Structures are given as structure tokens and as C-alpha cells.
């Protein structure tokens, strides 16, 4: 029989938030794979438990190399517990490769639910929580960061990001540039810790605040894009949205219907805009061909 891979959530700040099952899993696992064995030691001491099994490191630097070893342990019947420094494994932390490899080998994967910085920040933000998407860490390079933000500029769901404190001001400034200075957001700092703080406001205001220097673990929650009214979406934008959907594989008829429903205009209006754009492109191509013919004396 194969073993079991257990993903265990760990406290994001206050050790008292550790799920009761965590101590039992730490004590009973055959192998404990930890992102940082020193932090694991502090956690086990705080919980008053000593792992009986083998403790190994499992972090970004050795994740690819160590995964096959752990999968073999699982295939041999071992119970492997995976913990990261804070929160749930695999969520911007090591774990995905091991889970994917374990599933491929037919190994059972389960979890000990625990604290989550994503959900905690979302709940405290005061922003809509019915629909959201987690974007993790943004790229460090300014150009790549702007590109990533532009990809979600029209995303209507609430956005959640992780960020390093020394990059927070640049990130908020980039968000203000792409999303607008008045877009509501919340910067959640040191969640569940002694100096927990949630700073809410427009992105421009928050960028200025962060420029003074911010410390600690950071989660940023940003309000989704507002739906544009019919008067805000011109024919060119309607055509662009249809083209994007067509390039993604939708048939033109379905793309036109979807854009019309999204914007709140009659399908005929979107259809006419697409036809007009096509005719304009054809006329331009014909004029260009005529000019070329004249130049060669035809």
C-alpha cells in the first residue's frame, strides 16, 4: 500500500492559531519535510511536540531534487508531512511539485487546514469577497511588473497579492499607474502578530504612505475593476474585445454576443462595429494596393 502525503497549514503569526491536528501529525509522521528546519524546530518547541520521524529540508532550492526521494518514501508506505514557514504549502510556497508527483503515482494526498494570509487579508480588507483571484508575488523588474498588472487591468474580481516590504512602494505606485490612483485597496501587514496593521485607501494614497517605509510580512488586496457603462466603451474597444475572444478560440458570433452582454449594449451595435472595422481595413488594403500599382506603372 502507498503512504499518505499530508499538507499542513502553519501559523502566519500567532502560534496559538496552529490547528490542533498539527501537533499530532508532527509527532506521528514518518517524514517531516520543512521549508526551514530551524523554524520548524521553534514551532515544535512552542507546541510542545517532538517529531518522531525523519526531518528533511524542502525548499525552493532543493524542491526539484528532493521530490523524487519523497515520492519514493510515499510509494513505500510512508506518511510524509509537508510544512512551510507560514500558511498553506503550495500557495506561493514549496509543495506543488510534490503534490503533482504524488498524485501521478497514485498516492493519497490530504491536508490539515490552517491559517491563510490570503483569506485573512481578504476578510479584513473591507473589499468585496464574493469573487476574488490570488496573483501571488509580482515580478521584481519594473517592466515585467507593469506587464503583469496590465493583464488584469479589467479584472472585476478582487485581487490579492503578496509583496516584500522593500518593494511595496514601487508596487503600489505601479498599481496606481495601471489601475488608477483612486482604486480602493488594503495593505495588510504582520497579520495576527503583535503589530498587525491594515491600511486602507486609494492606491495613490497608499503608495505615498508606503514611500515612508513599511516593515513586516505584506499582503495587498485590490478592488476589482468597475464595469464600464455603454457610454464608456466606444466602437474601437468593442472591436478589440471581440478580437481578443476570437484569438482565444471563440467563434465570432459567440464573441459578439459575449461582448454585448458584458458591456450592456445590443448585439447589433457590436456586430456593426466589427463589420465597420473590417470594411475600413479592407478599404485601406485596397488603397495601398492601388498606390503600389501606380508606383510600378500598372
TrEMBL record:
Subcellular location(s) per record: Cytoplasm
GO biological process: methylation
Top-rank taxon: Bacteria
Enzyme type, top EC level: transferase
SUPFAM superfamilies tied to this protein: Tetrapyrrole methylase (SSF53790)
Key words of the record: Cytoplasm, Methyltransferase, rRNA processing, S-adenosyl-L-methionine, Transferase
Protein known as: Ribosomal RNA small subunit methyltransferase I
Organism name: Streptomyces tendae
Source species taxonomy: Bacteria, Bacillati, Actinomycetota, Actinomycetes, Kitasatosporales
Amino acid at each position: 500500500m502507498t503512504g499518505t502525503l499530508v499538507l499542513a497549514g502553519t501559523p502566519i503569526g500567532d502560534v496559538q492559531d496552529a490547528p490542533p491536528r498539527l501537533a499530532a501529525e508532527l509527532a506521528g509522521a514518518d517524514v517531516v519535510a520543512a521549508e526551514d528546519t530551524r523554524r520548524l524546530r521553534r514551532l515544535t518547541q512552542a507546541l510542545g511536540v517532538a517529531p518522531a520521524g525523519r526531518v528533511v529540508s524542502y525548499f525552493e532550492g532543493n524542491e526539484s531534487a528532493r521530490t523524487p526521494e519523497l515520492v519514493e518514501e510515499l510509494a513505500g508506505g510512508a506518511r510524509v508531512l509537508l510544512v512551510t514557514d507560514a500558511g498553506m504549502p503550495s500557495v506561493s510556497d514549496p509543495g506543488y511539485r510534490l503534490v503533482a508527483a504524488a498524485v501521478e503515482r497514485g498516492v493519497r494526498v490530504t491536508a490539515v487546514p490552517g491559517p491563510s494570509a490570503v483569506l485573512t487579508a481578504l476578510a479584513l480588507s473591507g473589499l468585496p469577497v464574493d469573487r476574488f483571484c490570488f496573483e501571488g508575488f509580482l515580478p521584481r523588474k519594473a517592466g515585467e511588473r507593469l506587464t503583469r498588472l496590465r493583464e488584469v487591468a479589467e479584472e472585476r474580481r478582487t485581487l490579492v497579492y503578496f509583496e516584500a516590504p522593500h518593494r511595496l512602494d514601487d508596487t503600489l505606485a505601479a498599481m496606481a499607474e495601471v489601475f488608477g490612483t483612486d482604486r480602493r485597496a488594503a495593505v495588510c501587514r504582520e497579520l495576527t502578530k503583535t503589530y498587525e496593521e491594515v491600511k486602507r485607501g486609494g492606491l495613490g494614497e497608499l503608495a505615498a504612505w508606503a514611500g515612508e517605509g513599511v516593515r513586516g510580512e505584506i499582503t495587498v488586496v485590490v478592488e476589482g475593476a468597475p464595469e464600464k457603462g455603454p457610454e464608456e466603451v466606444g466602437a474601437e474597444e468593442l472591436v478589440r474585445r471581440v478580437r481578443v475572444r476570437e484569438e482565444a478560440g471563440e467563434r465570432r458570433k459567440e464573441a459578439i454576443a459575449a461582448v454585448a452582454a458584458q458591456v450592456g449594449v445590443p448585439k447589433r451595435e457590436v456586430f456593426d462595429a466589427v463589420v465597420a472595422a473590417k470594411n475600413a481595413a479592407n478599404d485601406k488594403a485596397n488603397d495601398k494596393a492601388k498606390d503600389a500599382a501606380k508606383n510600378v506603372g500598372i
